[in-house]
Amino acid sequence: MKRFSYLIVIITCFWFSIQGRAGPLVVNSRDEPLDPPLIKNGAPGGHALPLAVGFRKDLNTAGGMEVIGSDTVDFGKYPAREKKVANFKIRNSGRETVKIRKIYKTCGCATAVCDKTELKAGEKANVEIVILPNSIFGAYSKPTYIESTDINNQFLSMTVKGTAVPLVEIKPQDFLYVGRIDTNRQWLQSFDISATEPGVKLGEPNVKCNYPVETVMNLLSAKEPVQYKLEMKLMPSTASGDFQCSISIPVINPTDNPPVVMGISGKIGTEMIAFPGTFRMSISSNDIVRKFNLKVLGEKSKVLDPEQVKLPEEKGVTCEVKQADDGRSIAVTAKFSPDFTKELFAQGKIYLPFSVPGISSARVLCLSEKNQNLSPR
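Given the sequence above, the corresponding C-alpha coordinates read:
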Protein backbone atom coordinates (compact mmCIF):
# COMPACT_ATOMS: atom_id res chain seq x y z
CA MET A 1 0.00 0.00 0.00
CA LYS A 2 2.85 2.37 0.87
CA ARG A 3 4.53 1.62 -2.46
CA PHE A 4 1.27 2.45 -4.26
CA SER A 5 0.99 5.77 -2.33
CA TYR A 6 4.59 6.69 -3.24
CA LEU A 7 3.84 5.89 -6.89
CA ILE A 8 0.77 8.20 -6.84
CA VAL A 9 2.88 11.03 -5.36
CA ILE A 10 5.62 10.58 -7.97
CA ILE A 11 3.10 10.55 -10.87
CA THR A 12 1.36 13.68 -9.49
CA CYS A 13 4.65 15.61 -9.15
CA PHE A 14 5.68 14.58 -12.65
CA TRP A 15 2.33 15.74 -14.06
CA PHE A 16 2.59 19.19 -12.44
CA SER A 17 6.18 19.58 -13.59
CA ILE A 18 5.02 18.98 -17.18
CA GLN A 19 2.23 21.56 -16.87
CA GLY A 20 4.68 24.18 -15.51
CA ARG A 21 7.25 23.64 -18.25
CA ALA A 22 7.38 26.29 -20.99
CA GLY A 23 6.57 24.87 -24.40
CA PRO A 24 7.49 26.31 -27.80
CA LEU A 25 6.95 30.05 -28.01
CA VAL A 26 4.03 30.74 -30.33
CA VAL A 27 4.56 33.72 -32.61
CA ASN A 28 2.50 35.70 -35.07
CA SER A 29 3.25 36.55 -38.70
CA ARG A 30 5.83 39.14 -37.61
CA ASP A 31 7.81 36.59 -35.60
CA GLU A 32 6.71 38.21 -32.33
CA PRO A 33 5.17 36.39 -29.33
CA LEU A 34 1.40 36.75 -29.13
CA ASP A 35 0.09 38.82 -26.27
CA PRO A 36 -0.77 37.09 -22.95
CA PRO A 37 -2.64 35.74 -21.14
CA LEU A 38 -3.84 33.29 -23.79
CA ILE A 39 -2.42 31.81 -26.96
CA LYS A 40 -4.77 29.92 -29.21
CA ASN A 41 -3.76 26.77 -30.98
CA GLY A 42 -3.47 27.09 -34.73
CA ALA A 43 -5.86 24.17 -35.40
CA PRO A 44 -9.55 25.07 -35.79
CA GLY A 45 -11.43 24.58 -32.55
CA GLY A 46 -8.23 24.46 -30.53
CA HIS A 47 -8.33 25.32 -26.85
CA ALA A 48 -6.70 28.36 -25.31
CA LEU A 49 -3.57 27.50 -23.36
CA PRO A 50 -2.04 29.62 -20.59
CA LEU A 51 1.39 31.10 -21.31
CA ALA A 52 3.90 31.25 -18.50
CA VAL A 53 5.07 34.91 -18.58
CA GLY A 54 8.39 34.03 -17.06
CA PHE A 55 9.41 32.18 -20.22
CA ARG A 56 8.78 34.97 -22.75
CA LYS A 57 10.17 38.41 -23.57
CA ASP A 58 9.75 41.27 -21.14
CA LEU A 59 6.21 42.54 -21.77
CA ASN A 60 7.41 46.15 -21.52
CA THR A 61 9.86 45.67 -24.41
CA ALA A 62 8.15 43.03 -26.53
CA GLY A 63 7.71 43.91 -30.19
CA GLY A 64 9.26 47.27 -31.02
CA MET A 65 9.84 49.29 -34.16
CA GLU A 66 8.90 47.58 -37.41
CA VAL A 67 8.14 48.28 -41.05
CA ILE A 68 4.56 47.48 -42.03
CA GLY A 69 4.67 45.46 -45.23
CA SER A 70 7.81 45.21 -47.33
CA ASP A 71 10.94 47.05 -46.19
CA THR A 72 12.16 47.32 -49.81
CA VAL A 73 10.88 49.33 -52.80
CA ASP A 74 12.19 48.42 -56.24
CA PHE A 75 11.89 51.21 -58.82
CA GLY A 76 13.02 48.90 -61.61
CA LYS A 77 14.74 50.38 -64.66
CA TYR A 78 14.05 54.06 -65.34
CA PRO A 79 15.67 57.22 -66.86
CA ALA A 80 18.05 58.73 -64.30
CA ARG A 81 16.60 62.21 -64.86
CA GLU A 82 13.35 61.10 -63.19
CA LYS A 83 12.68 61.59 -59.48
CA LYS A 84 11.63 58.45 -57.63
CA VAL A 85 9.63 58.43 -54.37
CA ALA A 86 9.17 55.52 -51.97
CA ASN A 87 6.73 55.65 -49.05
CA PHE A 88 7.04 53.35 -46.05
CA LYS A 89 4.86 52.97 -43.00
CA ILE A 90 6.45 52.08 -39.67
CA ARG A 91 4.86 51.10 -36.36
CA ASN A 92 5.78 50.88 -32.71
CA SER A 93 4.47 47.44 -31.79
CA GLY A 94 5.98 47.60 -28.32
CA ARG A 95 4.42 48.81 -25.07
CA GLU A 96 6.58 51.87 -24.44
CA THR A 97 6.85 55.20 -26.27
CA VAL A 98 9.75 55.21 -28.74
CA LYS A 99 11.60 58.38 -29.73
CA ILE A 100 13.23 58.74 -33.14
CA ARG A 101 16.77 60.02 -32.69
CA LYS A 102 18.10 60.37 -36.23
CA ILE A 103 17.72 59.23 -39.83
CA TYR A 104 20.88 57.96 -41.53
CA LYS A 105 21.09 58.03 -45.32
CA THR A 106 23.69 55.98 -47.16
CA CYS A 107 23.76 58.10 -50.31
CA GLY A 108 23.85 61.79 -51.17
CA CYS A 109 21.46 60.87 -53.97
CA ALA A 110 18.54 60.61 -51.54
CA THR A 111 16.45 62.53 -49.05
CA ALA A 112 14.62 60.85 -46.18
CA VAL A 113 12.03 62.26 -43.77
CA CYS A 114 9.72 60.85 -41.10
CA ASP A 115 6.52 62.69 -40.17
CA LYS A 116 6.88 61.98 -36.43
CA THR A 117 9.62 62.29 -33.85
CA GLU A 118 8.13 59.81 -31.39
CA LEU A 119 5.67 56.94 -31.52
CA LYS A 120 3.51 55.80 -28.66
CA ALA A 121 2.62 52.14 -28.23
CA GLY A 122 0.81 50.96 -31.36
CA GLU A 123 1.28 54.29 -33.16
CA LYS A 124 2.27 54.49 -36.84
CA ALA A 125 4.36 56.96 -38.85
CA ASN A 126 5.19 57.61 -42.49
CA VAL A 127 8.69 57.64 -43.96
CA GLU A 128 9.37 59.14 -47.39
CA ILE A 129 12.60 58.39 -49.27
CA VAL A 130 13.30 60.28 -52.49
CA ILE A 131 15.96 59.46 -55.09
CA LEU A 132 16.85 62.80 -56.66
CA PRO A 133 17.02 63.25 -60.45
CA ASN A 134 20.42 62.67 -62.09
CA SER A 135 21.98 61.91 -58.71
CA ILE A 136 22.88 58.25 -59.24
CA PHE A 137 23.48 56.05 -62.27
CA GLY A 138 23.39 52.33 -62.89
CA ALA A 139 22.11 49.60 -60.59
CA TYR A 140 21.88 50.54 -56.90
CA SER A 141 20.50 49.38 -53.58
CA LYS A 142 20.50 52.03 -50.85
CA PRO A 143 19.35 51.38 -47.27
CA THR A 144 18.14 54.12 -44.94
CA TYR A 145 18.36 53.62 -41.17
CA ILE A 146 16.10 55.11 -38.50
CA GLU A 147 17.75 55.24 -35.09
CA SER A 148 15.35 55.16 -32.16
CA THR A 149 15.23 54.45 -28.45
CA ASP A 150 13.79 50.97 -29.11
CA ILE A 151 16.18 48.63 -27.28
CA ASN A 152 15.07 45.64 -29.36
CA ASN A 153 15.64 47.24 -32.75
CA GLN A 154 17.71 50.38 -32.38
CA PHE A 155 18.27 50.72 -36.14
CA LEU A 156 15.28 50.08 -38.41
CA SER A 157 16.17 49.79 -42.10
CA MET A 158 14.30 50.49 -45.32
CA THR A 159 15.83 49.98 -48.77
CA VAL A 160 15.22 51.52 -52.17
CA LYS A 161 16.77 49.98 -55.25
CA GLY A 162 16.61 50.23 -59.00
CA THR A 163 18.59 50.86 -62.16
CA ALA A 164 18.92 54.52 -63.12
CA VAL A 165 19.75 54.74 -66.84
CA PRO A 166 21.92 57.82 -67.56
CA LEU A 167 21.54 60.00 -70.64
CA VAL A 168 24.96 58.77 -71.76
CA GLU A 169 27.09 55.78 -70.79
CA ILE A 170 30.80 56.38 -70.20
CA LYS A 171 33.55 53.77 -70.55
CA PRO A 172 35.70 52.81 -68.76
CA GLN A 173 33.69 54.83 -66.19
CA ASP A 174 32.63 58.35 -65.31
CA PHE A 175 34.83 58.67 -62.20
CA LEU A 176 38.22 57.07 -62.64
CA TYR A 177 41.06 56.54 -60.17
CA VAL A 178 44.26 56.02 -62.16
CA GLY A 179 46.64 55.10 -59.34
CA ARG A 180 50.21 56.38 -59.18
CA ILE A 181 51.84 58.23 -62.07
CA ASP A 182 55.60 58.85 -62.15
CA THR A 183 56.91 62.39 -62.33
CA ASN A 184 58.24 63.58 -65.71
CA ARG A 185 55.93 61.15 -67.44
CA GLN A 186 53.17 61.73 -69.97
CA TRP A 187 49.88 59.98 -69.25
CA LEU A 188 47.06 59.26 -71.74
CA GLN A 189 43.46 58.23 -71.23
CA SER A 190 40.45 58.01 -73.55
CA PHE A 191 36.73 57.75 -72.77
CA ASP A 192 33.91 56.43 -74.95
CA ILE A 193 30.66 58.37 -74.44
CA SER A 194 27.54 56.73 -75.89
CA ALA A 195 24.00 58.16 -75.80
CA THR A 196 21.31 55.85 -74.42
CA GLU A 197 18.49 57.49 -76.39
CA PRO A 198 18.10 59.26 -79.75
CA GLY A 199 18.47 63.02 -80.20
CA VAL A 200 21.32 63.56 -77.73
CA LYS A 201 23.80 66.34 -78.54
CA LEU A 202 26.75 67.36 -76.36
CA GLY A 203 28.78 70.56 -76.30
CA GLU A 204 32.49 71.21 -75.74
CA PRO A 205 33.86 69.93 -72.42
CA ASN A 206 34.89 72.29 -69.63
CA VAL A 207 38.00 70.86 -67.93
CA LYS A 208 39.44 71.88 -64.55
CA CYS A 209 42.69 70.22 -63.42
CA ASN A 210 45.40 71.00 -60.93
CA TYR A 211 48.04 69.70 -63.40
CA PRO A 212 48.48 70.73 -67.08
CA VAL A 213 46.31 68.59 -69.41
CA GLU A 214 45.12 68.61 -72.99
CA THR A 215 41.65 67.33 -73.92
CA VAL A 216 39.91 66.72 -77.24
CA MET A 217 36.38 65.42 -77.80
CA ASN A 218 35.24 64.18 -81.22
CA LEU A 219 32.00 62.83 -82.61
CA LEU A 220 32.74 59.15 -83.18
CA SER A 221 29.43 58.19 -84.81
CA ALA A 222 26.51 60.40 -85.90
CA LYS A 223 24.25 57.36 -86.20
CA GLU A 224 21.57 57.37 -83.53
CA PRO A 225 22.20 57.01 -80.71
CA VAL A 226 25.35 59.11 -81.14
CA GLN A 227 28.83 58.27 -79.82
CA TYR A 228 31.68 60.56 -78.75
CA LYS A 229 35.30 59.96 -77.79
CA LEU A 230 37.08 62.13 -75.22
CA GLU A 231 40.89 61.96 -75.15
CA MET A 232 43.00 63.38 -72.34
CA LYS A 233 46.75 63.89 -72.10
CA LEU A 234 48.49 64.70 -68.82
CA MET A 235 51.67 66.67 -69.52
CA PRO A 236 54.91 65.60 -67.76
CA SER A 237 55.41 67.24 -64.35
CA THR A 238 58.24 67.36 -61.82
CA ALA A 239 55.93 68.15 -58.88
CA SER A 240 54.54 65.40 -56.64
CA GLY A 241 50.99 65.61 -55.33
CA ASP A 242 47.37 64.56 -55.78
CA PHE A 243 46.07 64.65 -59.36
CA GLN A 244 42.49 65.97 -59.46
CA CYS A 245 40.56 66.66 -62.63
CA SER A 246 36.86 67.46 -63.19
CA ILE A 247 35.16 67.50 -66.60
CA SER A 248 31.75 69.03 -67.31
CA ILE A 249 30.16 68.44 -70.72
CA PRO A 250 27.08 70.56 -71.47
CA VAL A 251 23.99 68.82 -72.84
CA ILE A 252 22.62 70.82 -75.78
CA ASN A 253 19.79 68.38 -76.42
CA PRO A 254 17.58 67.39 -74.67
CA THR A 255 17.22 70.85 -73.17
CA ASP A 256 17.00 71.52 -69.42
CA ASN A 257 19.29 68.56 -68.73
CA PRO A 258 22.27 69.01 -66.38
CA PRO A 259 25.78 68.62 -67.80
CA VAL A 260 27.52 65.26 -67.99
CA VAL A 261 30.06 65.20 -65.17
CA MET A 262 33.27 63.16 -65.09
CA GLY A 263 36.18 62.99 -62.67
CA ILE A 264 39.74 61.68 -62.70
CA SER A 265 42.04 61.33 -59.70
CA GLY A 266 45.43 59.80 -58.97
CA LYS A 267 48.79 60.30 -57.31
CA ILE A 268 51.85 61.80 -58.96
CA GLY A 269 55.40 61.14 -57.76
CA THR A 270 56.22 60.73 -54.07
CA GLU A 271 53.41 59.12 -52.10
CA MET A 272 52.52 59.12 -48.41
CA ILE A 273 50.77 56.07 -46.92
CA ALA A 274 49.06 55.20 -43.65
CA PHE A 275 50.08 52.01 -41.85
CA PRO A 276 47.90 50.27 -40.93
CA GLY A 277 45.52 51.91 -43.39
CA THR A 278 42.25 50.12 -42.62
CA PHE A 279 40.21 49.93 -39.41
CA ARG A 280 36.97 48.10 -38.67
CA MET A 281 34.63 49.50 -36.05
CA SER A 282 31.28 48.56 -34.55
CA ILE A 283 28.73 50.96 -33.10
CA SER A 284 29.99 52.01 -29.69
CA SER A 285 28.66 54.10 -26.81
CA ASN A 286 32.24 55.10 -25.97
CA ASP A 287 35.05 56.75 -27.91
CA ILE A 288 37.19 54.38 -29.97
CA VAL A 289 40.93 55.03 -30.25
CA ARG A 290 43.12 53.79 -33.11
CA LYS A 291 46.82 54.39 -33.72
CA PHE A 292 48.76 54.34 -37.00
CA ASN A 293 51.77 55.89 -38.72
CA LEU A 294 52.12 58.14 -41.76
CA LYS A 295 55.25 57.54 -43.82
CA VAL A 296 56.64 58.07 -47.30
CA LEU A 297 56.46 55.09 -49.61
CA GLY A 298 59.82 54.00 -51.01
CA GLU A 299 61.88 56.88 -49.59
CA LYS A 300 63.41 55.97 -46.25
CA SER A 301 65.34 59.23 -45.97
CA LYS A 302 62.30 61.49 -46.34
CA VAL A 303 61.30 63.13 -43.04
CA LEU A 304 57.68 64.14 -42.45
CA ASP A 305 56.94 67.18 -40.28
CA PRO A 306 53.93 66.79 -37.93
CA GLU A 307 53.40 70.56 -38.05
CA GLN A 308 52.62 70.36 -41.78
CA VAL A 309 50.00 67.61 -41.64
CA LYS A 310 46.52 68.58 -42.76
CA LEU A 311 44.07 66.49 -40.76
CA PRO A 312 40.66 65.19 -41.91
CA GLU A 313 37.65 67.37 -41.17
CA GLU A 314 35.25 64.48 -40.65
CA LYS A 315 32.71 65.13 -37.88
CA GLY A 316 33.33 63.03 -34.78
CA VAL A 317 37.03 62.41 -35.52
CA THR A 318 39.90 64.06 -33.63
CA CYS A 319 43.58 63.35 -34.25
CA GLU A 320 46.81 63.97 -32.38
CA VAL A 321 50.09 63.81 -34.31
CA LYS A 322 53.72 63.67 -33.25
CA GLN A 323 57.06 62.57 -34.64
CA ALA A 324 57.36 58.80 -34.54
CA ASP A 325 60.23 57.06 -32.77
CA ASP A 326 62.06 56.48 -36.06
CA GLY A 327 62.42 60.26 -36.47
CA ARG A 328 61.01 60.22 -40.03
CA SER A 329 57.37 59.11 -39.98
CA ILE A 330 54.43 60.59 -38.08
CA ALA A 331 52.56 58.81 -35.27
CA VAL A 332 48.82 59.48 -35.28
CA THR A 333 46.34 58.79 -32.50
CA ALA A 334 42.78 59.05 -33.80
CA LYS A 335 39.70 59.19 -31.57
CA PHE A 336 36.28 58.28 -33.02
CA SER A 337 33.10 59.43 -31.27
CA PRO A 338 29.94 57.32 -30.81
CA ASP A 339 28.19 59.51 -33.40
CA PHE A 340 30.92 58.70 -35.93
CA THR A 341 30.47 54.95 -35.37
CA LYS A 342 26.73 55.33 -36.05
CA GLU A 343 27.41 57.27 -39.24
CA LEU A 344 29.94 54.62 -40.26
CA PHE A 345 27.32 51.94 -39.62
CA ALA A 346 25.01 53.69 -42.07
CA GLN A 347 27.61 54.52 -44.72
CA GLY A 348 29.49 51.22 -44.57
CA LYS A 349 32.85 52.91 -45.19
CA ILE A 350 34.40 56.35 -44.71
CA TYR A 351 37.75 57.59 -46.03
CA LEU A 352 39.89 59.95 -43.93
CA PRO A 353 42.50 61.96 -45.91
CA PHE A 354 45.86 63.08 -44.51
CA SER A 355 48.15 65.35 -46.52
CA VAL A 356 51.39 67.31 -46.36
CA PRO A 357 52.71 69.77 -48.97
CA GLY A 358 54.81 68.45 -51.84
CA ILE A 359 53.72 64.78 -51.83
CA SER A 360 50.54 62.90 -52.58
CA SER A 361 48.15 62.30 -49.67
CA ALA A 362 47.35 59.20 -47.65
CA ARG A 363 43.90 57.85 -46.80
CA VAL A 364 42.70 55.78 -43.86
CA LEU A 365 39.74 53.53 -44.63
CA CYS A 366 37.18 53.02 -41.86
CA LEU A 367 34.86 50.05 -42.37
CA SER A 368 31.71 49.19 -40.45
CA GLU A 369 31.81 45.94 -38.54
CA LYS A 370 28.12 45.17 -38.12
CA ASN A 371 27.15 44.54 -34.51
CA GLN A 372 24.58 41.74 -34.37
CA ASN A 373 22.77 43.31 -31.43
CA LEU A 374 22.33 46.64 -33.20
CA SER A 375 22.05 45.67 -36.85
CA PRO A 376 18.69 46.01 -38.61
CA ARG A 377 16.32 43.05 -38.76
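The two ends are 60 Å apart (CA to CA). Try to locate this feature in the C-alpha coordinate string yourself.
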